[in-house]
Amino acid sequence: MRAFNFLSVLVLLLTGAPASRASGSVAEHLHYSVLVLDSSHRQPIQLARVSLHRGASLVKGGLSDATGYAEFEDIAPGTYTLTVSFVNYHSYRDSVRLAAGHTVDTVYLAEQLQEEVVVGAEQEAPTLTAIDVRSGVQVVDLERQHLSPTSRMSSVLQQNILGAAKAPSGEIHIRGQHAEYAYYVDGILIPPGVFGGFNEVVEDKVIDHATFYTGALPAEYGGPTAAVIDLVNRVPSGSARLDVETYAGTFLGRDNSAPASLGIGTGTLRPINANGQTISLSNHFGDLGVFLSGNRQESDRRLDAPLPYIYHDHGFDYSGYAKIDYLLGPNDYITSNLNYAKTYTQIPFDPVNEGVKSDLQNTYNSFQTLSYFHTISRENDRESDLFVGAFAREGNLTFTPGRIDPRSFHFADDTVNGYAIAQDRNYTNYGIRLKWNDRFSHELLLSAGLNASVTNGDGRFDALDTSGTIGRTLGTNFHGTDVGVFVQTEYHPFEWTRFDVGVRYDQQIAPDRDAERGVSPRLRWNLYLDDATTCYLSYGKYFIPANIEELRALAVATGSNTTPTLAERDDAYELGVLHSFENGLHLKADIFRKVQLPGVDDETIGSSAIETSVNIAAVKVTGIEMGLSYNPVNDPLSGYINASIIHAYGSGAVTGGFLPIADLGSVSDLDHDQRLSLVASINYEPSSWFANITAMYSSGLSNGNESFAYSSGLFDLNQGAHTTPSWIVNCSIGYTFFIPGGGEIEPSLYLGNIFDNVHPIKGSYFSGAAWEEPRNLQFKVEVHI
C-alpha cells in the first residue's frame, strides 16, 4: 500500500515544490492516445474501456470517443499493461513502453462470433474506477447495478452518490438540497418534466455509464448544482440485436393499519400486482447506428403512499425511445435521442384524515436532441474540439379530482364554499448548447460556451363544487427565457498542481418578476501529492433561477400576497482528499459548507395537490462525506461504501410563490434534511452469473413536528423532529444461459426490502407524508438474440 503524508501539503505551500517526488518537469509527462477499431470493418469503436496498469494498480482508465480515440493526460514515461475491452468483443491486453517517441497506439478488437461461447475474464469489460483520483467524480457502470426492473433513475442516484437521500415520489435529495440536480445526455441539459421521472426520457439499455459531479462544479454547469448526472449513451455494438424483457412481481408486505371500511384486510399477506415488458432492436448500417425500444409497466403502487398500506395507487407507464448515431468522418460525429412517454396513475391518499378520494393524474413527456461533436485538432498538447447541441422538450399534466372528493380548497374571497381543484398544464421548452475547448499548451486549456432556452406554456385550474360543476376557472399563460455563458480554464503550471478557474453569467426572464441575473465565479485548486493522492480546495458561487412555470393565478386566489419566487443564490466551499490504493481500493473524503441567501423549497398550495417553489430567507448546509470503492483488476468481486453526515437548516421568512408569508424562526431543519446516510453494496459477477446485495441506512427526514426546539450543530441530530431511522436491504441474483448458434437467456430474481421495514420516509411538512414500500419480489427474464 502506497503511503501518503498530509504534511506534504504544508511543504508545498511553504516551498512551492512537490514533496512526494523530486522532479516535476512538464516534459517528463506525456499525452497518450489509443485508437480502438473493429478488426473486420475498420470502424471506430465508441466507449471501449481502455486502461493502463502497473502491476495490480490502475494508473489511468478511460473510454474511447465516437471516433475511436481514448486520450490520457500526464502519463509518466515507462512500461505499462494496456487493456482494451468492449462488450461482445474479444479483449486486448499487452505491454507498452511509453516514451517521447511513442505516444499513440492503435488496437484492433475482434467481434465474438454468434457461435462462440466465451467464458472467463475476457468476456467482461473491466469496471471503470468508481472514484477518479484526479477529479473526485464518481463513475458508475450501470450494467453492474442490477436494480429491480421497477427501479427508477433515482434509485441509481441514491445508491451511488455521496450524500444522497431517498425522497417521496421518485425524487432524491443530494447534499441536503431539494431535487437540485441536473441531467445531461449526449452533452445536452435536460430540463425537468412533469411528474414521471428520468426513466421516461432515456431507455436504460443505451446508457453505457454515468458520471456524477458533486460540489466544485466547473463554470459550464449552471442551474441546479447539488449534483450533475452526465449520461453517456451508445447504440449497442456489433450486428443486428433483438432484446426482449418481461417481468412480474408482487409486494409481500403486511397491511397492518388499513381501516376495515376499505376492505383491504388486516395483518395478512396481500400480494400486489407489478409487471412490465420491454422490446428493443439495434443495428448498424455502415456508419449509421440505430436503436429502437418500447416499454410498458403496470403497478398497484406507482407512488409513495401517505400511509403504510397500499390503496388507490394503480398506475401504467408507456414509453417509446429511439437513439441514432452517425459517424460523419474521422473527426465528426452526430447523435440524436427521441422519446415519448405517457403515465396514467391514481393518486394515493389518507382516508382517515383527508376523507375518501378518487383522484387521477395523466401526464406525457417527450424529448428530442441533436448533438454534433467535431474534433478540430488532435496534435499533441494542441487538442481542440467543438460541441453543438439542440433540444426540444414537451409535456402535459392533467389532474382530475374525483366526484366523491371532499371540497376543502377555499378562495380568499369565498371562505364559505369549498372546492376541489382540477388542473391542465402544458409546456414546451426549446434550447441550444455550445462548447469549445482549445488546449493552447500542455499547461493551459481554455473552454467557453453558452446555453439558451425558451419556455412557453399555459395552465388552467378549474374549481369544482360538490356537484362537479365548475365554479370558477383560473387560467395563466407563461413565457420566459434562460441564457447562460461561461469561460473556464485548466491551468497546470507544474505537475504537482492545477488551477480550475471559471466564471459564468446567467439571466432569466420570467413572468411577474423583473429579469434576474447572476455572475458565478468558480475556483478549484488541486494538489497532486503523488500519482495516487490528490487534495483539493474549492469555492463556487451559484445562481439557480426558479422554474418559469407560473402558478400565480391559483396561488394568489388563496391570499393577497404578490411576491414571486426569486432565484437561489449560493456560496459553496469544499475541502477534500482523493487516494487510490494499489489493491483496487479508492477513497474520497470531503467536508463542505453552503450558504443560500435566499434558499428555495417547494410548498403545497392550500389544500390542493399542487406545489410551487418558495424562498426561505437563509439556508445553511454543512456536511462531511466519505466514499470507498473497490474495483480490483480482473476480479469479479467489487463493492463500495458511501457515508455522510449532513445538516440542512433554514431560518427567517418563507416568501414567494405568491403564497402567504410564513416564518421558520431562528433555526428549523428543512424537509429534505437527512442527517446520516449510509449505503454499502457488494457485487460478485463472474462470466455467466451475478449476485448483488445492497444495504441503505437513513436517519430519517422531517416528521412534521414544527414545535421541536432545533439545534444547528452538525452532530445535533434533532431526532425528535425526524422520522425513525431505518435500514433497507435489497438483493438480486441472475444467470446467463448461452443459446447454441447465438443468443442469451438471462433470468434474474430481485428481492426488495428483505426485512419488510415499512417506515415513514417523511412526515407532512411543506408537502405531504410518504411511506416506504413493503417487501417485494420480482422475477425478470431477458432474451438477447
Number of strands: 44
Approximately how much beta-strand content do the residues carry? over 45%
Q: Could you give a short account of the major beta sheet?
A: 22 strands, antiparallel, barrel
Mean pLDDT across all amino acids: 82
Helix count, DSSP H or I runs of 4 or more residues: 4
The parts where pLDDT drops under 50 for at least 5 residues are 1-27, 114-126, 195-199
Shape label: globular
State the secondary-structure class.
mainly beta
Helix content: under 10%
For the CA atoms, what is the radius of gyration?
27 Å
Distance between the termini: 45 Å
Tag the structure with descriptive keywords.
44 strands, 22-stranded antiparallel barrel, 4 helices, 3% helix, disordered N terminus, mainly beta
Textual characterization of the structure:
With 785 residues, the protein is mainly beta. The protein contains four helices and 44 strands. The strands form six sheets. The chain has a 22-stranded antiparallel β-barrel. Strands 8-14-15-12-13 form a five-stranded mixed β-sheet, with no helix packed on it. The longest helix has 9 residues, at 7-15. It is globular. It starts with 6 loop residues before the first helix and ends with a strand.
